[in-house]
């Protein structure tokens, strides 16, 4: 009889506390060690006309059409070649302002690619997207 009573008393109970502690420690570890992305975007704000009429400052106009074609001062140019062409034109006129005008159908990829290329070449540029 005693053996039967002892067996019922010796039944083990599952203690969940150590498992919960481990889960919380792992959660804290992954939160602390996670890499948070800092994505930056384009600041597309309306800018005032920096080249008023009658001014002697030259403007280098880069136009992007709806088919992602690129034009510098009316001449068709490959999108990849724009930063080098702009640098050449800025060598001739160092105070020249670079202005990019994109039509409403222009892809965002083309505008962002051009902005990245201009930033890599350290060329200040203003971007205007037509509505």
TrEMBL record:
Q: Which residue windows are transmembrane per the record?
A: 20-37
Bilayer topology reads: Single-pass membrane protein; Single-pass type II membrane protein
Which keywords, in A-to-Z order, does the entry hold?
Cell membrane, Membrane, Protein transport, Transmembrane, Transmembrane helix, Transport
Q: Indicate where this protein resides in the cell.
A: Cell membrane
Q: Which family does it belong to?
A: Belongs to the ExbD/TolR family.
The name this protein carries in UniProt is Biopolymer transporter ExbD
What's the source species for this entry? Algimonas ampicilliniresistens
